[in-house]
Amino acid sequence: MSEIHLTINGERRTVNVPPMKRLLDVLREDLKLTGAKEGCGEGECGSCSVLIAHGGENAELVNSCLVPVLQAEGAEIMTIEGLAPNEAAKLHPIQQCFLEDGGAQCGICTPGMILATHHLLAKHPQPTLTQIQEGLAGNLCRCTGYMRIFEAVGHAAAAEAAK
Amino acid sequence: MRSNVTEYDLVAPANLPSALSLISEQPGHYTPIAGGTELMVALSAGRLTQKNLLSLHKLRELRFIDVLPETVSIGAGATFTELRKHPIIASDFPLLEAAASWTGSIANQNRGTLGGNIVNASPAADSPPALLAYDATVTLVSNRGARTIPYSEFHLSYKKTVLAPDELLFSVTLPRRFSSHRSYIRKVGTRNAQAISKIALAGVALIADGKIAEIALGAASLREVPTRCTATEQSLLNQTLSSATLPALITSARAALASEARSIDDIRSTAKYRAAVAGNLLEEFLRQLL
To answer: Any idea which fold A93-162 has?
Structure first.
């Protein structure tokens, strides 16, 4: 077992887990953060996406099913639970746009889609359709046909720009 | 069946000397793991047979892109995202930039490393055709010292490489001498995004005085290892290139490529399809040289 120190959504947490345990399983089982979902378990579908930063670097989008938790030691991690500043009061603009545009249906891909969108907009605040498509290519959705997701991302970018 | 993670050990040395000491004390005991985009898939599927893993993730010494006047050296720990972001990779080595852009999704490019892509030694890997076309060398390190060899000599047979049990891949070095070359790369997979290639071809050629003065071709999934297509290169070298000679050049080059192809049937494609499409890619490259 390894003692792992993580900052999850701004909160310091310590877990005692096998070092090869997948970050996804630590989030869901040990930290009870079930927003990240397991779809394929092989880094193809993106439903386990989270944002991870090491030592002040920019946060990167990763598939948490492919991260052995020891490699996340000391990292700052954001899951979907940490996106909205105060869940009871207000959604994050990206979440609001997914809601309004029908970008979420069954919901399995949605946490990953929204975090991939967050990562995309950090790099490209006004993304082209091609940039949106590439930025979300690692996130599979079987409900929406993607068009409503692309619209939601476009509206979220416009909402950020209007701020 | 999911693996039981309690059966696995993972150690994360803080620096390269510590990592090399660990593998020199117990050669072959540890399997290196960098971004995890390959080995963690095996873990999830319950088929990761190696139980003792050595994390290279924290090794800053492996994470660099050094630009010198004559060469660019890329640390084995550089991620595909870092390759794609680097202006000199884009300007001097567009084939590598293209390969990096279609290596998995953004999330996988953020974690996956150039070194992992090479050492994993899949014949279908995305970066090797470009590295072969660019005449890359690789530097391997151990507590015994460092050695640099042509990348074309790195792969011995299916999933077997020249890496000794106490060695790690340190860097990949590319000569900066392709600014006048014409280049080509194409990956054929089931779809554009994320699919593993059925066949891929990368090439550079220098045309001088109407002749093919230099040509290098690298292929994925053509043989059991990423392959430099030397017989095909020989069939083209010093040949006159014109609209009159092109049909005969294409015929002989396709025949040479077919002679050195050892493609196989597997879950992704068939030997017949791979051999035919490899020839088509080669022909497309040659037609673009006119």
So the answer is: DNA polymerase; domain 1 (1.10.150)
pLDDT in tens, chain A (163 residues): 999 999 999 999 999 999 999 999 999 999 999 999 999 999 999 999 999 999 878 899 999 999 999 999 999 999 999 998 765 678 999 999 999 999 999 999 999 999 999 999 999 999 999 999 999 999 999 999 999 999 999 999 999 888 7
Q: Residue B17 belongs to what domain range? A: 5-55
ipTM reported for the complex, 2 dp: 0.95
Q: Are residues B141 and B65 in the same domain?
A: yes
User: Are the Cβ atoms of B194 and A137 closer than 8 angstroms?
Assistant: yes
Where in chain A does DSSP place strands (E)? 2-8, 11-17, 49-53, 60-63, 76-78
Instruction: Answer whether B9 touches A (CB < 8 Å).
Output: yes
The reply to whether residue B8 touches residue A137, judged by beta carbons under 8 angstroms, is: no
A138/B194 Cβ within 8 A: yes
Residues of A in contact with B55 (CB under 8 A): 68, 70-71
Q: In terms of CATH architecture, what is A2-82?
A: Roll (3.10)
- Whose tokens are 């060695």? That residue is B167
In the three-class reduction of DSSP (H, G, I as helix; E, B as strand; rest coil), residue B165 is classed as coil
Query: Do B41 and B78 have their domain in common?
Result: no
Q: A21 and B5: CB-CB below 8 Å? A: yes
Task: At B94, list the tokens.
Answer: 């567009």
